Amino acid sequence: MPTFTALPTETVEAWRAGAPDAYGNPPERHISNGAGNPCRHCLNHVHKGADMLILAHKPFEGTHPYAETGPIFLCADPCERGGGTDLPAILTSSPDYLIKGYGTDDRIVYGTGVVAPVAELHQRIAAIFADPTVAYIHARSARNNCYQLRIDRD
């Protein structure tokens, strides 16, 4: 089984303390409307009425053509880091997700990207990991292309 990997707690705690995001801005504070606000740390949805952070995130080191940057949500209050082999809550609220493999050089492995229905995620992830050049997978929103989480080999 693959491992669904949340953002590191140390990184999230730094943002909660006001550390700059990928564009050098402090995270914005908002109130969750309860719909479509997946926390990339606990891998659950931010509850309606709860404080949340919105910030620009780049899930890569450095800058290069494949270093996509986009908005993410986080619980503003401390939450337990999610992850593991069970499908996390943030990958169950949409009918499908964009998943694509990356090599050790953090470049997309072409031919691995697919919009996968939730019911087929494990099967599609296994198919992507069948390619030995794939080091890890990113899951993104199929509607807005927002980064959701990283998927690592078992």
UniProtKB/TrEMBL annotation:
Pfam families linked: DUF1203 (PF06718)
Taxonomic source organism: Pseudosulfitobacter pseudonitzschiae
InterPro entries: DUF1203
Official protein name in the record: DUF1203 domain-containing protein
